[in-house]
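Kindly review both lines to help learners:
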Amino acid sequence: MRNLLLFISFGLCVAWESFELEIFDVVEEDASSADIKKAYRKLSLQLHPDKNDKPDAEAQFRNLVAIYEILKDEKKRLRYDRVLVEGLPNWRNPLYYYRRYRKMGGIETSIWLIVLTSIIQFAVSWTAYWEKKFEIREVLGSKAKKQKKQSKKKGTIQDEEIDLVEEEIKQIPKPRVWDLVPFLCIRLCIWTAKFIVSTPQLYKAYQEEKQKKEEKAKIEEEERLEEERRVKEIDAERKHRKKKTHKFEERNGDIYSAGLPPSVEESGSVIVRPEPVISGGFWTDEDIAELVKLMKKYPPGVPARWEKIAEVMNRTVAEITKIAYREKNNIHRSEARFENAAEDKCNQPNEEKEDETALVKKKVKTKGGKFAQEALSSDAAADCNWSQKQQKALETALGQYPKGSLERWDKVAKAVPGKTKEECMLRIRYLAELIRKKKEEEEEERKVNESLQEDENMKESQSDES
């Protein structure tokens, strides 16, 4: 029996095999990467499933690959060495205790959160209150000390500053329990309930206010339309009266025989007699200039524009519009006449030029006095005695020597043959004046065209309305 037990005990003993012992001696702890790689190749040939017939060969090979992946990386190898020395980390972390903590429902968790939030809020509120009190005492106290040193009435100032500090502190609101989160939530719920209940009333009030605004806007629009209609009726009535009104000139033979003016009677009362309207008379340059001024005074869009101009000039509306349209077409022809006259003047002999210049000096009055007269005569002379070659040379020199160049006009005069510096400057001034006049005439022509077009549009609109 004893031998049997001994045999059984020997059969239960397990021993390490030689290939298993070789695994532990493959590499040392301080082995290099090359040694680890060499050992991995050696063991992979032994433990590969294709060359190992054991049932757990595949699992052993996967473990070998995982070990090699850890050991070939320096960071993972250092952590592995640390685990070998210190052991595995303690698994009893805070998550372990949280998992074993008593489970709470949503209501209980909310209550705990509200309580904690209220405590924190109350503490923060009192901290802010004390901080404000401290700031007020520090600021006002420092001011009081400065004023106490500067003033002679020390006791009075000190009392006033103390009272001021106390008043400022009293104005700081103290933290209240009613301002904590639970009471705020309750007040929010009450306000929401009241708002929901009063929503129909608010909507009804909004609709009433909207209806009132619409009615008010409608009344204002009707009043505006009525006012416009009334203005149109008044304008139409005025035009109708103007058509029916005739101006008479009362004559009194006794008054004329007595030598009194025709506008004064024997009783001394004044009778205003309008002057007779001129129709088909001769138009002078002064009349045309006055027409242009009146067209600028009464621009397009003025009611009864041409009637007002005709009344001022004591002429008919048809004649006024006819002359305005004719002058618009004659602007270009007047420019041509002006240029031809200037050329004829340049072609006259020098003696006639001197006579005309003297005549102009005697008759023309300028704002600048003698200097302006000399400038006028010099500008007239600048238009003459300039050939096409000289003009071209002047333009080329002005392009070569722009504004800001040193001794510009001296260089320009040298570039123009037969002309001095003063003559070149007078020529430029004369050309600039011609350009300015041309622009003014073009602007005037544009305004006349716009006014005529506006009048035509107004007549068309009036004819459409009638």
Summary: Residues 106-179 form one domain. The CA atoms of residues 67 and 220 lie 93 Å apart. The mean pLDDT is 72. The radius of gyration is 57 Å.
